[in-house]
Amino acid sequence: MKIAHNLAQTKEKLCKVILKYAENVNKNTVIEILRNCCKCLKYSKIKRLERFMNMIKVMFVCHGNICRSPMAEFVLKAMVKERGIEKDFIINSSATSYEEIGNPVHRGTRKKLGEMGIPCDDHRAIRLTKEDYDSYDYVIAMDSNNLRNIDRIIGSDTENKVYLLLDFTDRKGQSIADPWYTGNFDATYNDIDEGCRGFLNKICN
């Protein structure tokens, strides 16, 4: 009896850890642990896991994760908050390269988001991982070079999760220019705003 009781306590503690760090847990892992631990979980914890499983998980990707992808991340976060559906989403961004890892959002992106009244937190550039492909429902790139580099990282898009952001508009297949080179953050913002609106319209209708 004591062994069984200790095992139940261990399972419950493990589930609490998973709930705390749920954003970074592989979906299949969560399902398996939920199956194994449901008898020792309170109903409220099971419902929290179920809500996590039903959330729409979006990863925006660009080359360095300091200009376009964080801009898309914060634009989409602002849009879902405005619609009152922010609890239905997990939205993040990452890079395909190591060049800017740990660096903050580019001042041009931060300035443009500020002009539009969109908050920009203390985001630091991170790199996309193979595990992210399992954890997210949508991996959304900014240009064709990003697509090629994403493919090198994840192996192959076996679940059809990888898109260009403008694929959700009438400009399917087109790229969003990198303002790090062009200096035109206004044009980049307009493209990203259009793409994010198209994305929401697609998945919310």
Walkthrough of the structure:
There is one protein chain. The chain is α/β, with parallel strands linked by helices and 205 residues long. It is 52% helix and 10% strand. A 4-stranded parallel beta sheet has the order 2-1-3-4. α1 packs antiparallel against α2 and α4 packs across α9. The chain is globular. It starts with a helix and ends with a helix. The model is unreliable at 1-7 (pLDDT under 50).
Short overview:
With 205 residues, this protein is of the alpha/beta class. The protein has nine helices and four strands; from the N terminus they run H-H-H-E-H-E-H-H-E-H-E-H-H. It is globular and about 40 Å long.
**Which structural category do the helix and sheet elements fall into?**
alpha/beta
Low-confidence stretches: 1-7
H and E string: HHHEHEHHEHEHH
Q: What composes the largest sheet?
A: 4 strands, parallel
Number of helices: 9
End-to-end separation in angstroms reads 52 Å
Using the alpha-carbon principal axes, give the shape: globular
Question: What is the number of strand segments?
Answer: 4
Strand numbers in spatial order across the main sheet = 2-1-3-4
Q: Averaged pLDDT, please?
A: 85
Radius of gyration: 19 Å
Helix content: 40-55%
Strand content: 5-15%
Question: How are the elements arranged and paired?
Answer:
Blueprint: H1 2-20, H2 27-37, H3 43-54, E1 56-62, H4 68-82, E2 89-95, H5 107-115, H6 130-135, E3 138-141, H7 144-154, E4 162-164, H8 179-182, H9 185-204
Parallel strand pairs: 1-2, 1-3, 3-4
Helix pairs in contact: 1-2, 4-9
